[in-house]
Amino acid sequence: MLAVSWFFSQFSRDENTPPPAGVRTIPCTAVDRFAAKGLVLTPGLVINARLDTRILAESLTRLIQYKFPRAGARLAFRNGAYEFQIPKTFDAETPAAVFTVDDYPEAYDGFGRPQIPSALTGSQPSIHPVPELDEFVRSKMCPKTEDDFLQPNVPLLHVHFSVFRDLTFIGVTVPHIGFDMLGTGALLAAWTRVINGDDLDAIPGMEWNAQPFAHYVPASDSNSVTSIRTSLRGWFDLGWLSQLSFIGRFVLSSIRDPKEVGYLVRVPKVFINEAKEKIMNEIKAQGSNEYVGSSDVLMAWWYKTVYSYRTPTDHTPVHLHFASSLRSRSVFAQDGPLAYPYINNAISYLPVPPIPLNAFVTESLGQLALRIRRAIVTYNADAAALRADLRWLFESSNATKMAFPCPPGAEFSITTNWRDGKLGALDFSGAVVSESKSEAAAGRVLFVHTVITMGKAFPLRGSGAVFMEDEDVVWMGQVLGSKDWERIRETGAVVFA
């Protein structure tokens, strides 16, 4: 009966449809809608041991029940708005998450299976094909679109285990409207604490009714507009002629280079650290107190590589956008950061002032890294502007407006950095089966394989993510046109496997 109630609550057009019985409701925020774009995300963890799936499922279920009930919610569309419907109790008919298992008695290697990229070596950056690992991190019945999650009684979390004698794949599939990657990382970190025997009472959780952005929601009886902005910083509200120009240029570039291709980018930390040290020495020699971080160097190197085949006379403006977590910002109640883990979306986009394309060809790595660092410092120092961004986002239907990442005639790139999610540091040793426990460091993450799907075609060209690091390597996934990749290969700026 609960599933039937959910069905009518989700798809009824009645503006006064009550929520179904047995649930508590929380509205999705403007940040959820702005980030979502209809995407479904699966971070897939490759663990270096055979794990006990019973321990994995039971521990995550308990964690959701007692610490993260929002993670066990259902996504619904009721009375013209998206919301999370959180069951008051979880049971066999209303599970906290869906778990599926494929059990392989043999070792992973062999049978023509793809190589796990963690085995790759070398001290210089390199480009590698994405291994075909999707079948090991998503079950065939796993939801693939946001609409799939709107069906009756479908939990937000779908966890798939592929278990081999020597490896375990853990795929955690979620709709982006419900989680960002750092939120998923916070849930996974808490999960491993339960697996390894920590007391539930000692693990920070998230209350079912947490609404840290509530003070940005305009009062229902308010018609005032508090912001004079037409868009978020770094994004453009284009007139219809400019929109046609932007779309036409994008379509033309897609016709010239129609095939989008994703590659893995492997960047050894020794390479990043040596480059950073050289840059810092140059900065100090100039008598400056500025600095660059390893992520600044990584991004500067990447964009210098991407544009290595362009001409030194090309002055096209390039707009870079970096997804940035709001959790540590002073934008919440009492102007302080969040004091608890928050699994839902809490990201903004940090814009770097437009950089002439030829600068990526002619400027040093250190100069480009400083451009990025200065943009980050400026962004972080202006909490008032960030709060204004949020006020604009929550006004009216701004979260669903079409915003453009650059004006016509410019270029753009959007990168998400998941390093703070520390997916490579997760420890599943408490679930390692007995015959594997003698192995050193069993239960560690070898690699993170990501899968992204959506209901409608959405261009990913020019986007990427830094999704994992371990002691030795940082891994990125990047999407470009196939001809762009070939031109980069021809420059010799980076080695292609």
TrEMBL record:
InterPro entries referenced in this protein's UniProt entry, alphabetically: CAT-like_dom_sf
Name the record gives this protein: Uncharacterized protein
Provenance organism: Mycena sanguinolenta
